[in-house]
Amino acid sequence: MLKNSTAGGDRTAQPQISEKLVSAGFHALSDPLRIQILELLREQELCVCDLCDRLSVPQSKLSFHLKTLKEAGLVRSRQESRWIYYSLNFAQFLALEQYLAEYRRFIQILPARPCAGADLVR
Asked: pTM score, two decimals?
């Protein structure tokens, strides 16, 4: 889920989330119903029937959104008998948090250098 990379001489090797998982994570977080699902799972593990009842949505719609959350790694599932229970995958939330935290290091961004072809544009 995480990969190690360094992008500079003074940086120590820190785990960084892959671009695919960053994109999938933020896509999953972009839908209000998926946010509601995550808020419910924040309190406790729930089965699909409980989620359907609390959110007043049909199972087919909920299944689509749960699939998106699972593909993003934000939610995990476990099967017990014929029921599937969902819970948050805190490790993935931490990885997204660490990804965003890296931007704090770039609070002061240097202006761009003039392009080599800038003299030709006049």
From this structure: 0.74
Spell out the residues 6+ positions from residue 56 whose beta carbon is closer than 8 angstroms to its own.
Answer: none
CB-based contact 90:45 (threshold 8 Å): no
pLDDT digits (tens, 9 = 90+) for 20-79: 889 999 999 999 999 999 999 999 999 999 999 999 999 999 999 999 999 999 999 999
CB 14, CB 4: distance < 8 Å:
yes
Q: Are 41 and 87 in contact (CB under 8 A)?
A: yes
Does residue 16 sit in helix, strand or coil?
Answer: strand
Contact in structure between 17 and 98 (CB atoms under 8 Å) = yes
d(CA 65, CA 29): 10
